[in-house]
UniProtKB/TrEMBL annotation:
<dbReference type="InterPro" id="IPR006145">
    <property type="entry name" value="PsdUridine_synth_RsuA/RluA"/>
</dbReference>
<dbReference type="Pfam" id="PF01479">
    <property type="entry name" value="S4"/>
</dbReference>
<dbReference type="InterPro" id="IPR042092">
    <property type="entry name" value="PsdUridine_s_RsuA/RluB/E/F_cat"/>
</dbReference>
<keyword id="KW-0413">Isomerase</keyword>
<dbReference type="InterPro" id="IPR036986">
    <property type="entry name" value="S4_RNA-bd_sf"/>
</dbReference>
<dbReference type="Pfam" id="PF00849">
    <property type="entry name" value="PseudoU_synth_2"/>
</dbReference>
<dbReference type="InterPro" id="IPR020094">
    <property type="entry name" value="TruA/RsuA/RluB/E/F_N"/>
</dbReference>
<feature type="domain" description="RNA-binding S4">
    <location>
        <begin position="10"/>
        <end position="66"/>
    </location>
</feature>
<dbReference type="InterPro" id="IPR002942">
    <property type="entry name" value="S4_RNA-bd"/>
</dbReference>
<dbReference type="GO" id="GO:0003723">
    <property type="term" value="F:RNA binding"/>
</dbReference>
<comment type="similarity">
    <text>Belongs to the pseudouridine synthase RsuA family.</text>
</comment>
<protein>
    <recommendedName>
        <fullName>Pseudouridine synthase</fullName>
        <ecNumber>5.4.99.-</ecNumber>
    </recommendedName>
</protein>
<dbReference type="InterPro" id="IPR018496">
    <property type="entry name" value="PsdUridine_synth_RsuA/RluB_CS"/>
</dbReference>
<dbReference type="GO" id="GO:0120159">
    <property type="term" value="F:rRNA pseudouridine synthase activity"/>
</dbReference>
<dbReference type="InterPro" id="IPR020103">
    <property type="entry name" value="PsdUridine_synth_cat_dom_sf"/>
</dbReference>
<dbReference type="InterPro" id="IPR050343">
    <property type="entry name" value="RsuA_PseudoU_synthase"/>
</dbReference>
<dbReference type="InterPro" id="IPR000748">
    <property type="entry name" value="PsdUridine_synth_RsuA/RluB/E/F"/>
</dbReference>
């Protein structure tokens, strides 16, 4: 295979990320699982490759000279699994997307949840958006059951922190919304919003993600998607640099439609 603009050796997991196969961490897992070969031999962690090396994933040849990385925002409908493939044959989010080689979801939304989900061919972007050290905020609109709507004092418990089975969980903010709450998190544990609200006696009946980093869902309908441009990608990673008028317009548009 041919490489990019340099013939210098490169770590295999970085090459796989650049090709849009997976994030660097996920690429390492593929290597450990024995799913990667280099020049016909099973790859090992720490392996370096050059542009002339033939790299295959599950027997499929990888071409890092393919089209530039692309990133989409999808309004994930309920009932879709956030995975590239599902062993039980359930619909995945890739079934809602165009057939772009290397496209994979960024992070997760559980099967029953809806809303903003990113999909990209850029493995490094996936790492920057999912690694805990970057702490990208996520905003969720929850509709709940239970005895009335969550009260401000109950939601304050989410901000103080609740002990869950996997440790203390704390919302950056939690405020009332008609029929439920609007919750902002700085982390993304499995079904965290659902578990936190259930802990205060208000099980979630519908959950919709409205924002990730500096990107709002806007009026994108269920199952609809669009490609992000370079400006949106920058705002996604650097929310503090989004112009105030742009932020306020996108927030108002999103909350008017979904809040």
């Amino acid at each position: 295979m041919t490489g990019g603009g340099s013939g210098a050796p490169e770590r295999l997991h970085k090459r796989l990320a650049r090709a849009g196969i997976a994030s660097r961490r996920a690429a390492e897992a593929l290597i450990v699982a024995g799913r990667i070969t280099v020049n016909g031999e099973a790859a090992t962690l720490g392996r370096t490759v050059t542009p002339t090396d033939e790299i295959r994933v599950d027997g499929r040849l990888i071409d890092v000279t393919a089209a530039p990385a692309v990133t989409y925002v999808l309004h994930k409908p309920a009932g879709y699994v956030t995975s590239a493939r599902d062993e039980y044959g359930r619909r995945t989010v890739l079934d809602a997307m165009p057939p772009v080689p290397g496209l994979h979801p960024v992070g997760r939304l559980d099967r029953d949840s809806e809303g903003l989900l990113l999909l990209t061919t850029d493995g490094d972007l996936t790492l920057r958006l999912t690694h805990p050290r970057y702490g990208h905020e996520k905003v969720y609109r929850a509709w709940t059951a239970g005895d009335g709507d969550p009260t401000p004092s109950e939601l304050a418990r989410l901000e103080r922190g609740l002990p869950l089975e996997d440790g203390l969980a704390q919302a950056l903010s939690a405020r009332p919304a008609p029929g439920g709450a609007l919750v902002t998190l700085g982390e993304g544990r499995n079904r965290q919003v659902r578990r936190m609200l259930e802990e205060i006696g208000h099980p979630v009946v519908r959950l919709l993600r409205l924002r990730m980093g500096g990107l709002w869902l806007g009026d994108l309908g269920p199952g609809e998607y669009r490609e992000l441009d370079s400006r949106e990608l920058h705002h996604l990673l650097h929310p503090a640099e989004v112009p105030r008028r742009v932020w306020e317009r996108q927030e108002a548009e999103t909350l008017e439609r979904w809040g």
